[in-house]
Specification:
- The complex is a heterodimer of chains A (about 500) and B (about 300).
- Chain A is of the alpha/beta class.
- Chain A has 2 domains: about 5-240, P-loop containing nucleotide triphosphate hydrolases (Rossmann fold), CATH 3.40.50; about 255-500, Rossmann fold (3-Layer(aba) Sandwich).
- In chain A, the strands form 5 sheets. In chain A, strands 13, 16, 19, 20, 21, 22 and 23 form a 7-stranded mixed sheet that branches. Chain A has a 6-stranded mixed sheet with strand order 6-7-8-3-9-10, sandwiched between helices. In chain A, strands 2-1-4-5 form a 4-stranded antiparallel sheet, with helices on one face.
- In chain A, β19 (about 425-430), α15 (about 435-450) and β20 form a beta-alpha-beta unit.
- The longest helix of chain A has 16 residues, at about 175-190.
- In chain A, about 50% of the residues are buried.
- Classes of the chains: A alpha/beta (about 500), B mainly alpha (about 300).
- The interface of A and B includes residues 21, 61, 79 and 80 of A.
Chain lengths: ~500, ~300
């Protein structure tokens, strides 16, 4: 279809949308149109301006210039309620749900004229059955799984009979099976004429779902394409505007066992956490072990028990033959076991402290940054500078606060901080979460290099493509249990789904 | 010791009077905290309400006008807190503590000329028929109107919070302010209104102390009632009827220990005097042991509207 006919038949047309923030132009003259019944992908790296753009469509952000037309009429929503009234709804990246409230109350809050309680509950049941997303309106949202929580968001949108549904990273927390269910629902919707504006970092998903893609780079539309005709790599290169480096390493025989856990069970230290149940694993030198699984199945607890934040019993965790089960974090660091937790702000880095101070926090032991209780600032600053240069962290300098860095840059910093301490075993949780394609590739490459140089690497991640790309063996966490690791080579999606769902243990036994 | 001196009917009747100031302050604070704001300035707003209510009551000769003025004063003071916390993003704990100190100082300044005066008396409602019921009549139906006003406020608060859309929005804002903002709700406006309501209730509670309970103006006369109200909100898991229960429990033990003192019980006075606080703390601890306390998810967190 040519540009002109697209324009004429469009459901929503954007023309010259511009929004500037102090020091940065988030959107610069963005124009494109979305057809009814189309799944339209919005592609771009972090900071390309995707979020700002959809927030303008949803009435959360007021554009500086440009205008939109919806079904031929001028469309300038002053707030989300106005956007919803015109038939534009949105499912957010971080769920906009209220944990303590019930499903029905959550849905009611997202509607402008909700029917009274009993009628609403009946409607929820009806619509959720019709779209194959069963949901009990009376349950408390805090007790639901990630997949069910997303159903709440989607049902909330569907009840308002949307003409355009905006989805921001909807699949980042779903199992492959849940993704299939979601896609089926979306296809049903498009068949009814609803258009979907779809944002995702997962390019394979976009290729299988979307019919048209608009690529943003630094706030500008740089390209449009039919993603079904492109490879994931081509799409990534359109986003980056450069050839994409694919992480690579030479195959090598794994060495002796570097880290082993045997029968580790532990109650979760947090209220809504998952208890670890009888976890055993072995990682060899020069090997990358990928640990998959949906968030909240014990990932944080597994990392904590390895980092030493939670202590296990004596004799259950050994590092190169030494029993470290009851050792605190610094003793483990001294022996070469380093970790990088998932939450960047507040867990792996202190947001209000400078990069130098953050470098000291985990580097003190191995980099000898402390001398008889006194800090060696010069040495520390040099270490921070080294991380910044070697890992291409974009920041004015090591004196900047960690919290001032973008997610991707801070992630490069915290991974770099551990990698440069030459660990024997490195455990990372979600190393590329919310990080764009080129930064993610750099981080993955550094993990592969580390393994190449003889370290054992454990990567806990919810991004299956990432685990398939870098790990030698794959396992998955399900309700605190770890499946038996299998070689990644030749692993199919069904098996992975079964492992993530906890089915594998039965079939293996 | 002569326990026979303690008349259980009078005890129960005075329980309601003793508990009303705390009940009023606590129900207001419960609404504020349900909206996600922790206002530790309850004590300051109460004492300001006490002195303003007393001064206006004395000058106009009408306790009712005094109560209205006290509510307005409490709300006005809370707006100071609201602007600092919601617009200037100041720390809620520090600002709330500051508000208490400010209120204590301000009230003793305003109250200087009124020391030693007597409050205009407030007629008790002798509700016909109901007040004549034996036993229940004197306990429940022969109080001043403010006792019933406080109960009505609790009932209305419960109804609004659990049964109306406005209440749902308020709970949503307190549970997850980012989500509420993303859905297009005015987080700051909702919170400002909640803070004003909390301030008005605290003002009423304070005025009840100076106009009805004591009834005269003494510097620092609320004597920690605001802090008790704060504790009761937590103990009540932010639920209106439990707030009522907690306030009456505290009020009841206060009255009981005063009666025991008067009856010359063989328990040291110090222990009796501390008993309401000890019992409240114990109940708090027991309730806290049970895990999920239902604290609003965004309680005390600063809200930045991100775009």
């Amino acid at each position: 279809m040519t540009g002109d006919t697209r324009h004429q038949n469009a459901l929503l047309t954007l023309e010259g949308m511009t929004k500037a923030y102090p020091g940065v132009v988030a959107n610069d003259q963005v124009s494109f149109s979305i057809l009814p019944g189309e799944v339209h992908a919005l592609l771009g790296e972090n900071g390309a301006g995707k979020s700002t753009l959809v927030k303008m469509i949803y009435g959360l952000v007021k554009p500086d210039a440009g205008h939109m037309t919806l079904r031929g009429e001028n469309f300038a929503p002053v707030n989300p309620a106005a956007a919803r009234a015109s038939g534009v709804t949105m499912v957010f990246q971080h769920f906009s749900l209220f944990d303590a409230l019930s499903v029905a109350e959550n849905i009611s809050l997202g509607m402008d004229n909700p029917p009274e309680r009993r009628a609403l509950s009946a409607r929820i049941r009806e619509v959720s059955q019709a779209y194959g997303l069963p949901l009990d309106p009376g349950r408390t949202v805090g007790d639901l799984s990630a997949g069910e929580r997303q159903r709440v968001e989607i049902i909330r949108c569907l009840l308002q009979d949307p003409k355009l549904l905006i989805m921001d990273e909807p699949t980042s927390v779903l199992t492959p099976q849940e993704v299939d269910i979601l896609f089926e629902t979306l296809r049903k919707l498009t068949a009814e004429g609803t258009a979907i504006l779809y944002i995702s970092h997962k390019l394979e998903e976009i290729r299988s779902l979307c019919e048209h893609a608009t690529v943003l780079r630094l706030g500008k539309v740089v390209d449009t394409c039919d993603p079904r005709e492109k490879s994931a790599r081509q799409l990534a290169e359109m986003m980056v505007g450069d050839t994409l480096h694919v992480p690579f390493r030479e195959a090598a025989e794994p060495g002796p066992v570097a880290l082993s856990m045997s029968g580790v069970s532990m109650k979760s230290p947090t209220e809504f956490g998952t208890d670890l149940r009888n976890i055993s694993l072995e990682v060899r030198k020069g090997e990358v072990l990928g640990v998959g699984g949906v968030a909240g199945n014990g990932q944080d607890e597994l990392l904590a028990v390895l980092s030493g934040e939670s202590r296990a019993q004596n004799g259950t965790i050994t590092l190169a033959g030494t029993d470290i089960g009851a050792m605190p974090p610094n003793a483990r660091r001294a022996r070469g076991l380093l970790t990088a937790p998932e939450e960047r702000l507040g867990h792996s880095a202190a947001p209000d402290m400078s990069l130098t101070e953050n470098a000291l926090l985990t580097g003190a032991v191995r980099e000898k940054l402390v001398n008889r209780g006194f800090l060696r600032w010069h040495r520390t600053k040099d270490f921070a500078r080294k991380i910044i240069t070697e890992f291409d962290v974009r920041t004015p300098g090591p004196d900047n606060a960690a919290g001032s860095l973008s997610g991707g840059n801070l992630q490069k910093f915290v991974i770099g901080r551990e990698v440069l301490q030459r660990p024997d075993v490195l455990v990372v949780n979600q190393p590329t979460w919310g990080v764009d394609a080129s930064a993610a590739a750099a981080i993955r490459q550094s993990l592969l290099d580390l393994a190449q140089n003889g370290a054992a690497v454990v990567v806990i991640s919810q991004d299956l493509d990432e685990l398939m790309e870098i790990s030698d063996r794959f396992t998955a966490l399900n309700e605190g249990r770890l499946a038996d690791p299998v070689p990644t080579q030749g692993l199919d999606v069904e098996t992975i789904g079964l492992m993530m769902g906890g089915g594998e243990t039965e079939s293996a036994a | 010791m002569d326990l026979g001196q303690i008349n259980p009917l009078l005890l129960l009747a005075s329980l309601m009077v003793a508990a009303t100031p705390i009940l009023l302050a606590a129900i207001g604070e419960a609404v504020v905290e349900k909206s996600g704001v922790l206002n530790l300035g309850v004590e300051g707003m109460m004492i300001t309400g006490a002195v303003v209510g007393f001064a206006i009551g004395v000058n106009t000769g009408s306790p009712a006008v005094g109560f209205v003025a006290a509510a307005a004063a409490g709300a006005a003071l809370s707006m100071l807190f609201g602007v600092l916390v919601l617009y200037l993003m100041s720390n809620q704990v520090a600002t709330g503590l500051g508000l208490t100190l400010f209120g204590l100082g301000l009230s003793s300044l305003i109250g200087k000329p009124y020391e030693g005066m007597k409050a205009p008396s407030m007629a008790k409602w002798d509700i016909p028929v109901l007040g004549d019921i034996p036993v229940l009549g004197p306990i429940l139906f022969r109080h001043d109107p403010m006792v019933y006003v406080s109960l009505i406020i609790v009932a209305v608060t419960w109804y609004v919070l659990t049964r109306t859309r406005a209440g749902l929005i308020l709970r949503g804002v307190g549970e997850n302010h980012d989500a509420a903002h993303a859905l297009g709700y005015k987080v700051v406006r909702v919170r400002l209104l909640a803070i004003a309501f909390g301030g008005a209730c605290a003002g009423l509670g304070g005025a009840y102390v100076s106009l009805v309970r004591v009834p005269q103006w003494v510097e620092g006369m609320t004597a920690g009632a605001g802090w008790i109200a704060l504790a009761i909100v937590v103990f009540a898991s932010w639920r209106p009827w439990r707030v009522l229960l907690g306030a009456y429990l505290f009020g009841g033990i206060t009255v009981l220990q005063l009666n025991l003192q008067a009856a010359g019980a063989a328990i040291p006075v110090e222990i009796l005097a501390m008993s309401p606080y000890v019992v409240t703390i114990l109940v708090l601890v027991v309730i806290s042991l049970r895990g999920n306390h239902g604290a609003p998810g965004s309680l005390g967190r600063i809200f930045h509207a991100t775009h």
